[in-house]
Amino acid sequence: MSHETGRPGASTRMHCPRTACAPRHRRVLEAASCAAGAALLAAGAASAGCPPVFAMAVHYAAGSMPAGLVAGDFNGDGIPDLAVTNILSQTASVLLGNGDGTFGDASHSSTGDFPAPIRSADLNGNGRSDLIVANLDSNDLSVFMSNADGSLQPGRRIPVGSRPVHIAVVDLNNDGSPDIVSANEFSNSIAVLLGGPDGALSDAVQYSVAGSPSTITVADLNGDGAPDLIVPRISGAGIDVLLGDASGGFHPAVEYATASLSFSAAAGDFNGDSYPDVAVSNYFDGTVSILAGMPGGTFHQAVHIPVGIQPLQTVAGDFNGDGHTDLVVAVQGEGSTAVLLGNGDGTFQPAVTYATGAGAYSVTIADLNGDGVNDLLVANYQGMSLSVLEGRSDGTFEAAVDLPLPGSPSSVVLADFNADGRPDVAAANQTSGSASVLLNGASCAPPADLNDDGVVGAADLLILLANWGLCPVRKPVDCPADLDGDGNVGLADMLNLLAHWD
After folding, report:
1. What phi, psi does 412 have (nearest 5°)?
2. What is the pLDDT of residues 32-78, one digit of tens each?
3. C-alpha span between 367 and 352 (Å, rounded)
4. Which of 257, 317, 439, 482 sits CB 3.0–4.6 Å from 55 for a disulfide?
């Protein structure tokens, strides 16, 4: 038995089995099943979405003026922990997770001046996360190795360049050890530190770019298996592309013009030709530049698409399940998010804007409610809130639901803090000296999956039919087919099951 719903042009005809020779009770149940399914199809029924639901935020003291936030496992117990950089305290704070979504008190480690960007990675291969912090005013990194109890060893200070505003951790030379890349705003450079198996790091090697870098996007642009770098700039209108040489080094940067200074770039195959393309947000121009990739990691001249006032971060994803890359942009000047659906040929439909909150500066793509469709999480700095936009399967989104915070969110991470299979949210609140944790309570996983195989189908229908009638009085737990909890397995439960049929 099969049916299709919710797709344009999909058949709404249901083929019912011949039951004339079956036992009477089976004929009755099959007829009921077919009638129920036909009724659902005639009405164009589809499984209802369930909006992402987050518990009220719980706040944990961090330090003075939190900036960066990252999740990691610093004590190797398999439970996500949090680490926060604190600008005025000049510390990094670690909050160990308890496994139920709560966290212990923060422990603090000294950093350099103006610690902000932060990353976690297992630098020495011992199964525990270590911590890398960029210190903007002391022009170096603080690298902390973790102990078995989750505490941090004293940080090693490694010079990288003037004002390291962004760091990325990636294996540049395919030796299995994480390497570190730093974008240095005032020295117009990218610094590379190669890692070793024991956590050792090389001295920084500098690569010049054409202006002040803002962030780093890592992608394999020429298909040689080596990571390459896309570097947006906040001086001049352009990006720099550095192709990796597979040994951990890079070829000289090649500059490509955009329309304005930029804080963000996203890579993806926008036109289906297997060559990575790049989208760059142009802060003062109100556009996103699309640079189509060519063989060898080179790019065509940029094409600009309007998105709104002061676009900050651009992220690539697939919002309507058509296999084409779409874009979403956090538009700071309008307190909104702009969604551009890809046509698959390198062009995009006009931006559709969704109101979020004041100072929208970052957007994260994730399936927050388990329905198989991407949702959006937007951080609003001036609005002191997060906005959740539930995705629909056609690439549109529900109106934003705002989650208030006690301060301005400077960084946001997603992780499953309580092991329930759903992504939870943590935010560093820059103006309140805290980190907030919001546990995810949404789930669109249908209870009609009676055999827990991840699919609602014929096997589940057979289980329901086998349990048709009143549930056992003494053992209601043995009645999983009673989907509506009324003590009876009947037509309402069958309708529920058919509504979730895969």
Report:
1. -135, 140
2. 444 444 433 333 333 335 678 899 999 999 999 999 999 999 999 99
3. 20
4. 439
Q: For the beta carbon of residue 177, count every other beta carbon within 10 angstroms.
A: 21
Which residue type does 452 have?
D
Length of the chain: 502
Dihedral Cα 411, 163, 245, 194, nearest 10 deg: -80
125-154 residue pLDDT tens: 999 999 999 999 999 999 999 999 999 999
Backbone phi, then psi, for 493, in 5-degree steps?
Answer: -70, -35
End-to-end Cα distance, the chain: 11
Confidence of residue 241 (pLDDT cuts 50, 70, 90): very high
Map residue 408 onto helix, strand or coil. Answer: coil
- What residues contact residue 43 under an 8 Å CB cut-off, 6+ apart? none
Name 321's Cβ contacts closer than 8 Å, sequence gap at least 6. 373, 393
Determine if residue 422 is left, alpha or beta; phi over 0 gives left, psi from -120 to 50 gives alpha, anything else beta: beta
**How much is the CA Rg of the chain, to the nearest whole Å?**
26
The answer to whether residues 231 and 262 touch, using CB atoms and an 8 Å cutoff, is no
> Which H, E and C letters describe 90-143, residue by residue?
CEEEEECECCCCCECCCEEEECCCCEEEEEEECCCCCCCCEEEEEECCCCEEEE
pLDDT at 481: 87
Strands of the sheet with 91-95, listed across from one edge: 66-72, 81-86, 91-95, 107-110
Per mean pLDDT, which range of 19-23, 89-93, 280-284, 376-380 is the poorest? 19-23
> What distance in Å separates the CA atoms of residue 106 and residue 91, rounded to the nearest whole number?
11
Give residue 275's Cα distance to chain centre: 23
Tokens 């190797």 belong to residue: 76
Task: Report yes or no: 189 and 242 within 8 Å, Cβ to Cβ.
Answer: no
Residue 321 Cα distances to 220, 262, 370, 400, 454, angstroms: 24, 29, 15, 21, 19
Among 38, 33, 32, smallest CA distance to 5 is for 38
- In angstroms, the CA 267 to CA 265 distance is 7
Q: Could you tell me the sign of the dihedral formed by the alpha carbons of 32, 35, 38, 39, in that order?
A: negative
Residue with tokens 């989907």: 483
Whether the predicted pLDDT of 487 surpasses 90: no
| DSSP class per residue in 283-318 | TTTTEEEEE-EEGGGEEPPPEEEE--SSEEEEEEE-
Residues 328, 354: Cα–Cα separation, whole Å: 10
